[in-house]
């Protein structure tokens, strides 16, 4: 009996290798997506943005009980969004030197962190989001980092690592959520009208004023016409009365 070693056909071996590679990629993608992340509604310098922080798992299987988001010094104030399943509080600290906000008001303290505490622990394998409204620093090209401490029923994870120069963030085990500030938008700091918009608005107002003036002219013309008609009717009435009187005398 001829004993030959059985080997898989080449296409089968290739398919197996491809499946293994896909598995590795899927695991890598899962690990990356498991990070605590931040997604800003806009990254334009000086604009107001809503930062959405996402938490997708617990601490090695343990449910999450608290999320503490550290605020950078470049962002002195923040407005947290209420989350039904969490209690939220702002932790403030005194500033060594007062600063001015976008409206020229002096600020003597800043919000150093926002803490969300779960009313019911967030089970591992379930995600939740937390929204903060802030003003993006007027510093195009800078990276704004938000270290996050995730506390669980057992243990905690510190999402505080930042990449070194030239290092890929995906190489970090627990990267801090961050984003890079982009150029200011044409709508200005508060989404207000630009100079071009203001010019167009002035033109529209001038056109409206002209239209109002035309309406007033038409109204005056109509008034004169009505007055003339009334005067004509009155003249006819007087003429008829005089004619009647002259007929009686005759």
UniProtKB/TrEMBL annotation:
Question: Residue ranges under compositional bias (Acidic residues)?
Answer: 194-218
Mind listing the UniProt keywords for this protein, alphabetically? Answer: Membrane, Signal, Transmembrane, Transmembrane helix
- Give positions of region: Disordered: 182-226
Q: Which residues form the signal peptide?
A: 1-34
The record ties this protein, via InterPro entries, to:
YcnI-copper_dom (IPR012533), YcnI-like_sf (IPR038507)
TM segments?
224-244
Boundaries of every YncI copper-binding domain copy: 35-181
What is the protein named?
Answer: YncI copper-binding domain-containing protein
Annotated source species: Nocardioides aromaticivorans
């Amino acid at each position: 009996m001829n004993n030959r070693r059985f080997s898989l056909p080449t296409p089968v071996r290739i398919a197996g290798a491809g499946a293994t590679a896909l598995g590795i990629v899927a695991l890598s993608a899962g690990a990356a997506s498991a990070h605590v992340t931040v997604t800003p509604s806009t990254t334009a310098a000086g604009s107001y943005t809503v930062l959405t922080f996402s938490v997708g798992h617990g601490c090695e299987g343990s449910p999450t009980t608290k999320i503490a988001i550290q605020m950078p010094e470049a962002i002195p104030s923040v407005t947290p969004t209420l989350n039904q399943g969490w209690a939220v509080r702002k932790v403030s600290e005194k500033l060594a030197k007062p600063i001015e906000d976008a409206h020229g008001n002096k600020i003597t303290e800043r919000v150093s962190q926002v803490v969300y505490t779960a009313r019911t622990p967030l089970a591992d394998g379930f995600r939740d989001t937390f929204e903060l409204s802030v003003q993006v620093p007027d510093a195009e090209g800078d990276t704004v980092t938000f270290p996050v401490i995730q506390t669980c029923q057992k243990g905690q994870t510190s999402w505080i690592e930042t990449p070194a120069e030239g290092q890929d963030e995906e190489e970090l085990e627990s990267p801090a959520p961050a984003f890079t500030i982009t150029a200011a938008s044409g709508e200005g700091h508060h989404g207000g009208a630009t100079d071009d918009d203001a010019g167009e608005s002035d033109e529209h107002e001038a056109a409206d004023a002209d239209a109002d003036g035309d309406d007033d002219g038409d109204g005056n013309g109509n008034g004169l016409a009505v007055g003339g008609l009334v005067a004509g009717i009155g003249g006819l009435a007087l003429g008829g009365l005089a004619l009647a009187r002259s007929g009686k005398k005759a």
